[in-house]
What does this fold into?
Amino acid sequence: MYARFLEIEITGTCPYRCKHCYGSFPKPGELSFEKLCEIFNDARDHFDAVIVSGGEPFLHPRIAGIVRRAAREYVVFITTSGFGLTDEILDTIRNRCILVFGLDGIGSTHDEYRGYPGAFDRLMRSLDLTRDLPKEIIVTLWKGVLPQIDNIVELAEQYNAIVHFNGLIPVGNAKKHPEIMPDPQELEMLYPKLIALKKQGGAVITDLHKVTAKDGLQGIELFCKGRFNITPSGDVRPCEFHYAVLGNIFDRSLRTILDQARKTPALQSREQGFRDHIRLDLKNPFEYHTTICHNLFRSPKQ
Ligand code: SF4
It folds into this structure.
């Protein structure tokens, strides 16, 4: 059994300009509190967990009410840069959600990557505020962060956080910044290190997956099984890294869109971990998202 996640980009507003940003934020659009309540009602029975994201979710004027409402029936995660998180907001959402902070390097490495001087210090303040709360740190494996893995693990332990290292998916802003993509050889060298850290049972959880012959029989253990995404303008997509639009919640109910999408061969194949689509001649065995998944959902919007 796996948890089914609905990731909702509640606002397109964001002060940062991250080089890997999958959604090319900032962009227009914001989902109202009322529309979000409709989504939470409609999503019942389809999802176990809601990920409140953006843009920067703490810049949505109704963030506290949204979290309190969602927490009545879902496990709630908030993905944030830490920008806009205050003591006051924290008091109203404390114990109702798990905070997930994005970290892309130590000090100026993080600031330069995020295009915002002082971003690292702001993030450290947020980690300090939430020292006693359950939280995660997500690190996207871009070229410049690879030499800092040990420092990041140390930092996560210091703030009582678990840390995920995720492969960089070349979509959105990352497509415009090919220089941030690690070489397959660099990932090959990093892979055993991350597996070893994970096995130690400490702070490290890793989703970096390498396609192997075994996947052809069993399928890839995809983190996105049962996952869907909604953008600030209401488009429903297979996940936040995907260009394919399955429908819009301002035209049809979320329930109808999901029911129809689940009948498509592409979605069915994802639920089986792309078992029939595994190829061992991929240029980069760590990069199945665009070479396998995106090819399955070919769309004129690509
Ligand atoms: S495999 Fe496809 S659906 Fe799953 S996270 Fe990657 S791009 Fe999204």
